[in-house]
Amino acid sequence: MENKKQQRKGFVFKPYEAPSQSHFEKLFDIFKELITHTSGDFDEAIDWLRELDKEYGLTTPEYTIENFIEDLKTKGYIREEIRPDGKGGMGITAKTERAIRQSALEQIFGNIKRSGSGQHKSKSPGIGDEHTGDFRSYQFGDALDKVSMTESLRNAQINNGIDNFKLTEDDLVIEETMHKSQMSTVLMIDISHSMILYGEDRITPAKKVAMALAELIITRYPKDTLDILVFGNDAWAIKIKDLPYLNVGPYHTNTVAGLQLAMDLLRRKRNTNKQIFMITDGKPSCLRLPDGTYYKDSNGLNPHITNKCYAMAQQARKLHIPITTFMIARDRYLMQFVQEFTQANQGKAFYTGLKGLGEMIFEDYETNRKKRIKG
Questions:
Q1: Where do the DSSP E strands lie in 257-332?
Q2: pLDDT band at 167; cut points 50, 70, 90
Q3: CB atoms within 10 A of CB 144
Q4: DSSP per-residue codes, 274-287
Q5: Please, are residues 98 and 148 in contact by the beta-carbon 8 Å criterion?
Q6: Which candidate, 297, 272, 278, 276, places its Cα nearest to that of 287?
Q7: CATH of 182-366, one of 3.40.50.620, 3.40.50.1240, 3.40.50.410, 2.30.30.240
């Protein structure tokens, strides 16, 4: 018996083994990445999957790409649909759209656990439901359910002793809690042509961030609101389910139109906490004039256009709407524009590569703009 007990002591070390995945799960993980890159084009994603299979041997004789496609149908991830050109084909379903958002959430915010109805901390303590660990003396009007009985009884024992024990108002201690507030957020995504210039795909990571943020709010902050808009020559709102299909166009960058729409959306919200996230990689280069025509200038920073942007930033500041700009560029003159824009709004700006973009958006969202974020 003693020998058996001794055998159970200590730790057993063995090489790391990745979680077991079925053939379908392995291919599905790759498929979700490809369908995001192809903006929802099923046929193109499958063509890429076949090419990857040739190069890396992803399938086996027992489980082929055709078996995978059949499983996608059976599991409800794809369906037959009629395309705008009148031809039939396969398209992804809402179940796949959700799976893509969940995958983006795991990639970008993977270290965050879900909670039932999370909220945002406010800057001041008071009546709330999140304990801070700080205590203060009882004041007339404090709710009785906020009294810390453990600390209060401890005070009574210290002040009056055990033999003459009594609990007085002076012994009562209140545990501080934090207000929790709802947040209305507008996420602006630049879909101008520069997002795919020079052979660099910037729109796919931007889409992933948007999808991850959307899924984060749905699952962790269900009482919050999120509106998503895209801006090129003009700006228009899109639905969360449209994110996987988002693509760039032959557009200039009408930042003013995006900000106008963002503030219009936020004006309709009852929440007092409002904010704008703007993901862009290019300078503002376009304005829509009152007669419906466009004023465009792609050469450097045009003062007529940038001054309109600064005015919009100041207007947002007056409405207490901070703007956090995530600049996917390092050009000196672009950084100068963002610095002046941020100063006009008293918001935040991050000059970042795509790798750290999602983490910074999450940190800023979670802490309600109170923490300095490092890329």
A1: 273-280, 286-288, 294-296, 323-327
A2: confident
A3: 8
A4: EEEEEEESS---EE
A5: no
A6: 297
A7: 3.40.50.410
Instruction: Measure the CA–CA gap between 99 and 211, rounded to whole angstroms.
Output: 10
The structure tokens 């406010």 sit at 122
- Give residue 52's identity as a one-letter amino acid code: L
Strands lying side by side in the sheet with 130-137: 120-126, 173-181, 130-137
Q: For residue range 95-146, what is the model confidence (pLDDT) as tens digits?
A: 999 999 999 888 776 644 433 344 555 544 444 444 545 677 877 767 777 7
Instruction: Enumerate the β-bridge partners of residue 238.
Output: 228
CB 212 within 8 A of CB 104: yes
In whole angstroms, give the CA distance from residue 193 to residue 218: 30
Q: How far is CA 356 from the centre of its chain?
A: 12
Q: How many residues does the chain have?
A: 375
String of b and e for 108-120 (b: at least 16 CB within 10 Å)? bbeeeeeeeebbb
Q: How distant, in Å, are the alpha carbons of 301, 323, 325, 343 from that of 337?
A: 8, 14, 11, 10
